[in-house]
Amino acid sequence: MSRTSRIETLLWSIAFPGFGQLLNAKYIKGILLIVLEFYINMKANLNLVIISSYHGDIRTAIEQTNYQWLMFYPCVYMFGIWDAYKDAGGGAKPHAVLPFAFGAFFGTVGVIFSRDFLGGMWLGLLGIGVGVLTGTGLRIMLRNRYTTI
Questions:
Q1: CB-count exposure of residue 78 (10 Å: 0-12, 13-18, 19+)
Q2: The pTM is what?
Q3: Scanning 35, 51, 79, 108, which has the fewest C-beta atoms within 10 Å of its C-beta?
């Protein structure tokens, strides 16, 4: 696939887990990820949490959050993005999985510590961002190390 197709797939996966798989004609994975996203979203009360968070009512957002379910979301979200990107031809690059894996890890850690700070949505998103940046930096370091040897 062309670079544009990888980027398009990546962006659709960011918009909604499973859409990138549908673009890649991986229909079973796509539908499974969409169903899983809806189920986790519903169980975690994520839409209510997002509304309260955007209104600045962090205490209400924290009270509405089902943290046992929300902890699944960063991993499912980042896996969906990674899988669609990989299937579109982006996984052939060395260590390409690192930004996605670190994003899932740090996003989950953000959710774990969000009860007392910023609520599940904001600290989880911040964790994903920090994880993606960390994974990208590590990927670049590893790529440079192995290309100079």
A1: buried
A2: 0.86
A3: 35
Amino acid at 117: F
Half-sphere exposure (Cβ direction) of 137: Cα atoms closer than 13 Å? 8
User: Residue 119's closest CA among 57, 77, 28?
Assistant: 57
Contact indicator for 103, 128 with CB cutoff of 8 Å? yes
Domain coordinates of the chain in residue numbers?
3-148
CA nearest 124: which of 59, 49, 56, 48? Answer: 49
Which tens digits make up the pLDDT trace of 49-102? 999 988 988 889 889 999 999 999 999 999 999 999 999 887 777 788 999 999
| Mean pLDDT calculated for residue range 2-14 | 80
